Amino acid sequence: MKAQRRAGLTLVELLIVLAILAIMTTMAVTATGTLLDQSRYDATQRTLLGIEEAILGPANTREVDGSLIVGGFVADVGRLPLTVIDAGDPDGAYKQLRELWLPGALPAYGIYQVDVLAGAPDMGPADKVSIRCGWRGPYLRLPPASTGTAQLIRDGWGNPLDILAPTRVVAAHGEPVGIVRSRGADFSVDPFPPAGDFTSDQRVTLRALVPDAVTGEPIVDRISGSITVNIKVYNPAGGMDGNGGIEDPKASDGTVVVRLFGPANGVASFVGEQATFPTAPETTLNHTFANVPIGPRAVRAYQGTTKRSAVTYLTVVPGGPPVKTLVLYPVL
Question: What is the Cα gyration radius of the chain?
């Protein structure tokens, strides 16, 4: 009886099989690494978007009439959040955004409510302006493993986020947060704009007062706008029929004071004032308040204690809302 020969792989065939397996393994590892990097990149994007919405409010949210809704920390409190770094705390660098989830981390401010302001100069005892403002957080959703002040905010690669002041330097304790940045997979600062790979920086720029000399990122201001008001006066003897009309103030009418109302540390306050004096009849009298924090605000014009306009409520958006006209009427 003849012995049967057992088929097997030659050495060359075995080497070929091993080479194919090595190539397939390399491709699988590369694909897995790319998927991991993509998931880490996406996680970083979600973290930065959450911080952006916490500070500026959700983008493109509108009322039923189409007007833009501006919410978030800046709208409610009247300023950017301030960095909080506890001396001697090894986790202090990761707690810098604490004002977004813990009220009163730095100066105390009011909880969200309708705050009534009264009794200021040129305002009679019955003259009141209501401002809805105050801290109404938490604005930022914390990771499940974090509680209280022990918050660790990291990017998708597990690295701490850079918290920069509006001057683009590392923010110190008590400075406003201007830029929040992830350095990407390589944890190194890259030029701006990013190259588009996983090593590129990802950032949220809220306010940058100077251009970045290293990265080339320009000046940005997303937290403030301007308010321009035109001042008119009601003349009971004016108009074509003599039954009263709206006209420009005259020099004989005296000084007009325009006041801007809004939150300061979450408490209703006078946040701007301008006194103007008409110099001639038929001259348009206006004033622009610049660098007003975004969100619901109010303006009112006064002429001594004898005339004042209605309270005009408006929403400041980056760049500024439309021009508003304030008409001075006699105080009854």
Answer: 30
126: tokens are 């019955």
DSSP string, 90-109: TTGGG-TTGGGTSTTSSS--
Cis peptide before 138 (omega within 30 of 0): yes
Q: How confident is the model at residue 56 (pLDDT cuts 50, 70, 90)?
A: very high
- Residue-level pLDDT at 131: 82
Q: CATH classification of 224-330 is 3.40.50.1820, yes or no?
A: no
pLDDT at 82 over 70: yes
Pairwise CA distance, residues 285 & 228, whole Å = 11
- Burial code (b: 16+ CB inside 10 Å, e: under 16) for 266-302 equals bbbbebbeeeeebeeeeeebebebeebbbbbbbbbbb
Task: Give residue-wise pLDDT tens across range 116-160.
Answer: 665 555 555 557 788 888 888 889 877 665 554 445 688 888 888
